Amino acid sequence: MLDYQRTPQSIGIEVLSYSDTLLRLLSAAVLGSLIGFERERLLWAAGIRTHMLVCVGACLFMIVSAYGFATVLGPNVVLDPSRVAAQVVSGIGFLGAGAILARGEIVKGLTTAASIWTVAAIGLAVGGGLYFAAAISTIVILAILAGVKPLEELYRARNQSCRLVIETTHGALTPDLIKKTLGVRPGQIKRFVVKPKEGTNIDQVTLILARVASQEAQSIAEKIQALPNVNQVSVVTRAEDLAFAE
Hints:
The chain has helices at about 20-40, 50-65, 80-95, 110-125, 130-160, 175-180, 215-225, 240-245, and strands at about 100-105, 105-110, 160-170, 190-195, 200-210, 230-235.
């Protein structure tokens, strides 16, 4: 039979005070907003409010899990607070999946989805009273999101792919000639597609080179343009690639 007069204090169980509860929820909101602001400035859909809500919600789940069932504890009743935390970790994946956009071969939003997932972890840490771990995690996550991005863009600029569309006399351009002219390794030629134009003696060649710096694309086009029987060379930009994919 249930004893409705039982309280956590009457059975000697630690409870969370109102001030401590308020502190944990507000701390979760502040830490979540810091990461959300970094996403908001890049104009992602999951911005400040989304990250704050995820962090506060995860914090509240942890508080309820750890302190919300104290009155039902007894000699034959044992609760595991980590079970709720585990459900938050798996459940937040659905929200993160909504931040991921796929357009052809291009996938965007993975970093935002990961930030939502880590914000949930921060909320759980604050809900469990691990303020130091939550604060340090927030600093590290902000450093990753804002500090590593310029390095990542620099690396991509030096190791991106270059797509060229070339008009040439039929049979005049071959992969071996491209390798000899540009001095590239065989593995850098990712695609060499020849499409003859009907009723003409002209081939349209699509050439994709890997591990090429962005500033080298124009010089590569000029070297190919200088070859005999090459009529026109066009460098396809990333924006044109996206428009083509749409």
